[in-house]
Amino acid sequence: MITIQEGGIASTVQDRGRFGHYHIGMPPSGAMDKYAHTVANYLVGNEADAATIEMTYQGITATFDEDTVIAITGADMSPSLNGESIGTWETVAVDAGDELELAFATEGARAYLAVAGGIDVPEVMGSRSTYTLVGIGGHEGRSLEEGDELPIGEADDTPTDLVGTQLDDEYVPAYADEDTVRVVLGLTDYRLTEESKETLCEAEWTVSPEADRIGYRLEGPEMEFKEREQPFGAGTDPSNVVDLGYPIGSIQMPQKPIVLLQDAVTGGGYATVGTVISADRGLLAQRQTHKSVYFEDVDVDEALAARKERDERLETIRAEIESTD
Amino acid sequence: MASEITPQELPEPRYEYGADDHVFVELAEEMSFTANFKAMAITQQVAERDIDGIIENCPANASYMLRIDPGVIHPDEVIAELKEIEAATDIENYEWDTRVIDVPVLFEDPWTHETLMEFRDRHQDPDGTDLEYSAQLNGFDDVESFLDAFVSAPHMVTMVGFVPGLPWCFQMVPRDQQLEVPKYVEPRTDTPSRAVGFGGAFSVIYPVQGAGGYQLYGRTPIEVLDVDQQLADFNDSMVLPNPGDILNYRRIDREEYDAIREEVEAGTYEYTTEQVTFSTDEFFESPLEYTDQLTEEIA
């Protein structure tokens, strides 16, 4: 069991997500940075779909009441165990009674804590992910608070032989670099003028303070819509369309872009102009408020290739960790 | 006034990639029953074919969207199959089993009234109410006659989403009798739960308190989302509405509102519903008579 001493700013239990219910308005939830979540799990001998604790901007303080192994990945929140600094992207042994403390993120926005056996909260509709808007999943459907007690799942056998395993530097993302976020334009991008479509992919956007698990609102140049007589049912604003489904990663455009992420609203009446590719959604989720975002227009083949490359990299990482076992 | 609904000539569907893991298909830019029934018919076919690698299958008002696992199926393969389904889909003689659901509404209720007054500075008409504005815009003399039109025929659920359980509904009348209003100039940051709103040509019921941009008309005492599944009608799902359901809004007074609300809160309320087979042909031919007949049992 893990007992939370301090919950941080917005720490929630997340796995890979809740699927099959988007049509009733239920977003997948799940880890915002799948790569960091998955590597954390691999480092402690878990499957990729085990639940981790996702921490946003500020980490938790927590104590363990059993011997186990943990790994912390994602944003650097300067973790320490009983006051001694510990590594990230690394398998760390924890003894019963140990206190883990994380601070503010210096690089990146979201850190993941994996524990051998996974965070064993009950599944709701097939997932342990927290969806706070309606209060389901995770720990009581909400962010973690002082005094919360989280059960740890049974690990096959506690993988103490993994302790000290460290992810190769080449696989550790550098969140401080402002890498471009790749986008496949489309959906209802016919609403934008050609100039605005170009501006979208050339301008410097900044992450606004309204950036959370639902979506990232970006600040930047004004976008312009093509003039038209609004179709029946769409509403009068030129940014309005007849309400439609929003893909995860899609950029909706109520004047300023909002990139919809894991707790997205599943549909609505603003024009959508493209979709951040699945391999880069985690990258965006690690971008701190006030940092820059540049979009790069790619085609679907490049999006598929990037996804494949990421999946293969994760598979290589899994195999390398297993071989140290 | 038209007494029948003319099926719309739809443009060629637009197939769009939502990056590597979604396919979005726009059947029409404008709303019509033709486009919506087509979206429902196609997504139903997709469900029946049980295609490997399809993770989400979401009909919407005049479009639909799939989430896919591109490790299992390439988006182009999905699109090829969707085109094949589209070519074979004819919504003439299209029928499905659905429910008519009684939705009691206290219009001009104190809660939505307080909210809409609070956000007057975000509205087109800061001096009136949302209902006064909507009535005037749609050529009605007063709020009463506008509300009469709003409840005169049932509304079909043409999409569910935004948040869990929120139904978008399209009134089951010919185009020239459809009501239409803009959304708020600036969305509100607050809306009471169970508020009944209207925007574009869609009525909605807000499942939970939160932001919103639709004109506010009233509040229903019944739930559309029951996360804990306390009410008997939520045994199978925490969400009440499904695309294709028919909602019959009914005007109630404060006394009835309070009585129903008490039952809902006690967990004993049972929804008034009627199982029906919906026929697109019969509906298009004489919508008013047909919807009267559908709602007869629960009225």
UniProtKB/TrEMBL annotation, chain A:
Signal peptide residue numbers: none
Keyword Nucleotide-binding: yes
Alphabetically ordered keywords of this record: ATP-binding, Hydrolase, Nucleotide-binding
SUPFAM superfamilies: Cyclophilin-like
Residue ranges of every copy of the Carboxyltransferase domain listed in the record: 23-313
GO molecular function: ATP binding; hydrolase activity
Name of this chain's protein: Biotin-dependent carboxylase uncharacterized domain-containing protein
Organism in which the protein naturally occurs: Natronorubrum thiooxidans
From TrEMBL, chain B:
Domain of life of the native organism: Archaea
InterPro entries the UniProt entry points to: CT_C_D (IPR003833), Cyclophilin-like_dom_sf (IPR029000), PxpB (IPR010016)
Keywords assigned: ATP-binding, Hydrolase, Nucleotide-binding
Domain Carboxyltransferase: residue ranges: 13-241
UniProt key word Repeat: no
A molecular function GO annotation: ATP binding
A Pfam family that the UniProt record links to this protein: CT_C_D
SMART domains: AHS1 (SM00796)
PANTHER family, per database record: 5-OXOPROLINASE SUBUNIT B
Name the UniProt record assigns to this protein: Urea carboxylase
Organism: Natronorubrum thiooxidans
Lineage: Archaea, Methanobacteriati, Methanobacteriota, Stenosarchaea group, Halobacteria
